[in-house]
Amino acid sequence: MANQTVRADGVTRNSLEARTLPRSTRKSRLYLKRFLRNRTAVAGVGVFVLIALFGMIGGHLVHWTYSDVDFLAIGTGPSRQHWFGTTGSGNDVYAQLAHGIQRSLTIGVLVSLCTTAVSAFVGSIAAYLGGRIERIVLEIIHFLLVVPSFLILALVSNSVNGNWRMLIVVLIVFGWMYYARVVWTMAMSLREREYVAAARYMGLGAAAVVRRHIVPNIGSMLTIHFTLGVVTTIQAETGLSFLGFGVKTPDVSLGALIGDGSSLLYSAPWQFWFPAVTLTLLTVSMAFIADGLRDALDPNSRAGGHA
Known about the structure:
Elements: H1 13-20, H2 23-37, H3 39-57, H4 93-129, H5 131-146, H6 149-159, H7 164-173, H8 177-190, H9 194-201, H10 206-214, H11 219-242, H12 254-262, H13 270-297, H14 302-305
Helix pairs in contact: 2-13, 3-4, 3-13, 4-5, 4-7, 4-8, 4-10, 4-11, 4-12, 4-13, 5-8, 9-10, 11-12, 11-13, 12-13
């Protein structure tokens, strides 16, 4: 109360400002306040920003590109010319690492964004419509969940010769079902609410009701899913590339770099450890951010209880 001005009628300046602020702004400030209480989440944001900046501008700090070959420095360790050393083909590991971060983050963000949108729409519309459409959608989801998706991912990725755009499409096709099932479960309780029934009686179409009244009420869960989805996708892409089914030469990703460096762990350890440490920091930072978002958006969490 020390920094608050109390009027004659007992109303403080802060309370007046809170009344004049839009509701969305007040909620954003509340979520930010809760998020900032989680120190590991804040540290995760810092680490993620540094890695993202390295991926965006790191390649411009050296005169080598990820595909350039230095025939005078093949398989050499870190030096003034090549800060992170070179590969057995003479490629600069620093430039390849910056490009690999770009490629892995692009794949992770796009796949997670699309799978979140698809799962939110399919799960919500199935729960809202109910009846025969709901049963058909659930049967399709359950069928796709038991399909060996990793095997199909490996076969399709290998047939398109490691094209990262096709890899994104394949990861989206086989990545939305589980979360659509979760969204359907949550939307089941929302479809019986009064405001949803009111919107239906007012003549709104199913897509409009889902977009305006159901999806916004599961927005916190979708936000957390998007953040964790980036981590899961990067790990999946890394696994595929490590096994030789993901991004392939001349393009590079973190998984491709780790796969190439794993066979040289003792003779040329810089080719393995630089991308491996970067991948670990990236996934751990995203996990911390997701944990902070969960605390900030969940009113029943420990952080939410003190806000």
